[in-house]
Amino acid sequence: MKRLTIIALLAFVAGACTSRQPDATTLRIEVTNPTLSNVGLLVDRTTGYTVELDKHGRATLTLPGVECLYGQLVYGEQMCPVFLSRGDGATARFDGLHFAESLTVEGTNRAANDYLRTTTLPEGPSYEVSWEEFARGLRQREADIVRLLEARGLDSLCPDFARIERLRLRYAYAQPMLVYEMGHRMMTGDTTFRVGEALTDSVRTLIVDHEELADAAEYRDFLRFGIPLLLRDEGAALDSSYDRTVATMRYFGERFPQGRVQQTMLRSLALEYLQTEGIRNTAELQNLANTYLTDPQMAADYRAEIARHDLTAAGRPSPDFTATDREGRSYTLADLRGKYLYIDLWASWCGPCKRETPHLKRLAERFAGRGILFVGLSVDEDRTAWEKALDEEQLPGLQLRLDPASSFAADYGVEGIPHFILLDKQGHIVQADMLRPSSDGVVEYLEKLKDL
User: Fold this and answer.
1) Which of 68, 308, 376, 450 can bridge 399 by disulfide, Cβ–Cβ 3.0-4.6 Å?
2) Number of C-alpha atoms within 13 angstroms, CB side, residue 13?
3) For 153, phi and psi rounded to 5 degrees?
4) Residue 119, number of CB atoms within 10 A of its CB
5) β-pairing, 2-5 with 47-52?
6) Which of 138, 116, 117 is nearest to 127 (CA)?
7) Cβ atoms < 10 Å from Cβ of 170
8) What is the DSSP string of 231-272?
9) Residue 131 in contact with residue 193, Cβ under 8 Å?
10) What is the pLDDT of residue 19?
11) 130-174: pLDDT as tens digits
12) Where is 387: in which H helix or E strand?
C-alpha cells in the first residue's frame, strides 16, 4: 500500500497494498459489481490511502500506528464515514453500483459503523441569538444526540466506541463556538460585538489532550482553530496563515504533552501549509517541525513533503532560465546541454563578485578545452552597467544577462551574490551552492567529475 499526502479531498493516487504489520489496523474490502479499480480511505486533509481491487473486487487496507480512526471510505466521488480500531478485523462490503446505500462494515465495531452511517448531526442554533442562548442550544443538541447513542445500545455493543464518540460529539458541537462572534456580527450587523471571556474560557476548557481522539476530525479541527483564538486573546498578532500555523505549531510543541495528539497535529499543520503555500520563507515552520516532530513515521512524512518542494536537491533537473548575450541572442538551459555548467550569479555593482574575478579566470583557463562551460548570469537590471563591467573585467566563458522577470535566483533560494551553481551535462543539479573559484578544493572537486 502507498501512503500519500493529498490536498484535495478526492486527490487519491492508486497504490498496491503490500504491508502486513501485526500491530496495524486493517480493513478488508469486498466489492460486488465494481465500477472502479480502487478504493480509498481519507484520514485527514493531508493524508489518504488507496488500494487496488483485485479481479474479484477485493483488497486490504493496512494502517500502521492507528488505535482508533474516524475516516471516510472513498469510492469515486462518494464518501461514507467509518470507524476502525486495532484488532477489529473489519470488512467493508458494498455494491459498486450503489455504494452508500449498500455499504456495511462488519467486525467488532459493526454497530458503531451502522450508527455513523445512519446518524446525521442536527445543526446548531442560529448565530443571531445571544451567547448564553447559543451555548445553551449547543449543549442541548449534544445531549439529544448522546441519548440516541444510548438508545442504540452502543454502551454495551461497542463500549470503547461509545466512550470515544461521546467525546467526539462534544467537539462537534463545540466547533460553532469558534465562529460565533463572526456569525453574530453578520446576522445582526453589530460589527463591534464581542463575547469576551465567556467564549475564551469555554474554548480553553476544551483545549486538552485526548489521545483517543487524535484521528477524529472534529477534535483536530477544534484544536486547529481554537488555539489561534486563545493566542489572539493573549495578544498575539496572527495576520497571515503562516503566522497562525507557526504559532499553533509552537503551542503544540511547548504546551501539549508529548504524545500522539501533539505529533499528529504538528505533522498535519506543517504538511497542510506546505501543500497549500509551498516551501519558501518557512524557516520558522521547519525549525519547529525539526525540533518537536519526533514520531519516526510522522517525521518521515514531513521530510518527504519538504523534499517534494526542494527544487534544488542534487540530481534534480535544474530550474530553467531565459537570458541573453551581448548581441541579444536568447539562451535557456536546453541550449547549453552537453557540458558541465559552472554558473556564476553576479552583478556589476557587487564588490565580492569582483574579488572572485581573478580566481574565476584562472579556474576557467585551467579547464579550457574540457567538458565544462563557465557561464556568467548577471542579475543587473541596467544593461549599460552590465556591458561596461564585461569590458572592464573581461570575464571568461559565456556571459549572459538574466531576464529581469526570471525566477532562477529565487528558485535556488539565493540570498546574496556571488553565488555559484554546478550542473551536469544533462542540466541536472550537482551542487546548488557550489564552491567559489577562490575556495580551497574547487579544482580537486571539478577534477573528480565523471567524463570531464
Assistant:
1) 376
2) 7
3) 75, 25
4) 13
5) antiparallel
6) 138
7) 19
8) HHHTT----SHHHHHHHHHHHHHHHSPSSHHHHHHHHHHHHH
9) no
10) 32
11) 999 999 999 999 999 999 999 999 999 999 999 999 999 999 999
12) helix 383-393
| Cell numbers describing residue 305 | 513533503
CA dihedral 125, 181, 262, 49 (to 10 degrees): 60
Cα angle 158, 164, 167 (rounded to 5 degrees) comes to 140
Cell of 356: 572572485
Residues contacting 296, CB < 8 A, separation 6+ = none
pTM (2 decimals)?
A: 0.72
Q: Are 18 and 64 a contacting pair, CB within 8 Å?
A: no
One-letter amino acid of 324: T
Give pLDDT tens digits for 93-139.
999 999 999 999 999 999 999 999 999 999 999 999 999 999 999 99
| pLDDT at residue 86 is higher than 90 | no
For position 23, what pLDDT does the model report? 58
Angstrom CA distances, 102 to 29, 99, 105, 117, stand at: 13, 6, 10, 11
The Cα 88–Cα 195 span in angstroms is 44
Strands (E), 55-135: 58-63, 68-75, 78-85, 90-95, 104-106
Q: Decide: 262 and 252 in contact? Cβ < 8 Å.
A: yes
CA torsion, points 96, 99, 101, 106, in degrees to nearest 10? 90
Cis ω for the linkage preceding 176 (within 30 of 0): no
Which H or E run includes 84?
strand 78-85
The CA distances from residue 15 to 4, 26, 67, 96, 373, in Å, are 9, 16, 23, 19, 43
- Establish how many alpha carbons lie within 13 A of residue 410's alpha carbon, considering only the half-sphere containing its beta carbon: 8
